[in-house]
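SEVERITY: medium
COMPONENT: batch folding queue
REPORTER: lab tech (J.R.)

DESCRIPTION
The queue accepted two submissions in a row. Attaching both inputs and their returned structure tokens so the on-call engineer can compare them side by side.

ATTACHMENT 1
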Amino acid sequence: MNALDIITAGPLTSVQDFGRFGAQRYGLTPSGAMDRLSLAAANALVGRPLSAPAIEIGPTKTVFVARGGPLCVALTGALRFARIGGDACPLYRTFTLRDGDTLTLDAARKGVFSYLAVAGDLTGEATFGSFSVNARAGLGSPYPRPLRSSDRLAFENVTSLPDRSMIPPVFGEGYIRVVPGPQHDEFGKSAEIFCNSLWRISPTSDRMGYRLEGPVLTHAGNFNIVSDGTVDGSIQVAGGQPIVLMKDRGTTGGYPKIATIISADLGRFAQTRPRHTLRFVAIDVAAAQQEARAFHALLQSLPDRIRNSA
């Protein structure tokens, strides 16, 4: 059977797809890829459904070895050097791993997450409709945890493809766009401070939440509210500092939420490296919905952006 052996992997490397849906009312978080656009691009390049499971690779050095036979793969997302032995492997282009080939991904130079997709069916069993790993909940397949040395990912129905490439798709630039959160009105002047300030991503951030470092925000209720629902991109404020809830968030929270990152910008936000800075800009819900439709259209157009390499 064709397989990838994991030789070296960091704590943020795991199997992810678009996530699991329809069960948040039971406390089941969606999880899924931190950057859906990059995942979809990798899958499109190897002829897989856009939402299919692939390997989400964190910013540290990662090494794989191919076993059993050729695997057509594609790498997208964070900018990093990749090589098979001494031969460079460009991003957003398919390449073939043969039995015994070592694929080495150096630490990311820009961005956080990369995606390695394979032209074949990952062997495993979906849990609640998804392969996505949520280590805190013990969910995911074929391992319900981040990947580590000695793990093996097996693939069935492997196909070969001609060399294919894609210009890296981009959606949005500049400020990260947000809509007002459910407790926005209770932040008073702090709501203006939030959008007029420079924020830094804390090194303590992870797939559950990105902590923001910046000015202290105040809330009329002293940050105590009755727990209510959260969504991907909810920005809750605990003790004066914002936390952006990410893919492995809880489904409810007891801290006030000042804003929500629009779904179309969440992947771009997720690729912001620790200690890097960013700003937010508020838009209305109608504009956010328009951006969501445009983002969906971009996803659906990815197969048409592929070109066979000469």
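ATTACHMENT 2
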Amino acid sequence: MTPGSTSAACAALFRRDLTLAWRRRGDIAMPVLYAVIVTTLFPFALGPEAALLARISGGVVLVTVLLAILLALDSLFRSDIDDGSLEQLMLAPQPLALLLGVKILAHWLTAAAPLIVVAPVLASMLRMPANVIPALIAALVLATPLLSLLGAVLVALTAGTRRSGMLLALMLLPLCVPVVIFAAGAVAAAQEGLPWVAPIAWLGAALALALVLAPMACAAALRIAMDA
């Protein structure tokens, strides 16, 4: 890669974000710990009946993982605003939308990917049949980056607001509803032995659209928030 090129800048930013995330390994573990604790409490609250736990397992795992991602979204641009690196990104000659897309990818890898890895264990704890777990993983692989992209736009809109966590949650939760509906629909169809490709296809289409539009919207929102 040529020094100073767009690809070199994206690679350097990606390595920087992963390095900073590795230095704060406790922040990576917190969403996973939250998901494990919440999922563990359901058998104690509802009882050990396997049929009941299997029936609700898909919805419980999906909602728990999505809420865990919501907890991690608030820190997406916080450190960059505090140390001034966000202003440097905005002044860089490379496209801001592309650089923000790299940051969102790095955040997804550190915040959501560990949750996807632990999701089969959480599903097994709730007696989910083994043949349903592939549908759950496919739904999470598409739903989690979609929520990260949507959440990044809302984080950018509230970048200049202190204590924006509650405001971010209020704005993002309505956007989570369609994602949860399609993801849960795929899992429910798999549990019933029905084809579950259609809800996954809708999630994939929404993700493809968000991959194109969300970084540009995030860049515009950041410019508005930082100029305010």
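NOTES FROM REPORTER
The chain has a mean pLDDT of 84.
No errors were logged for either attachment.
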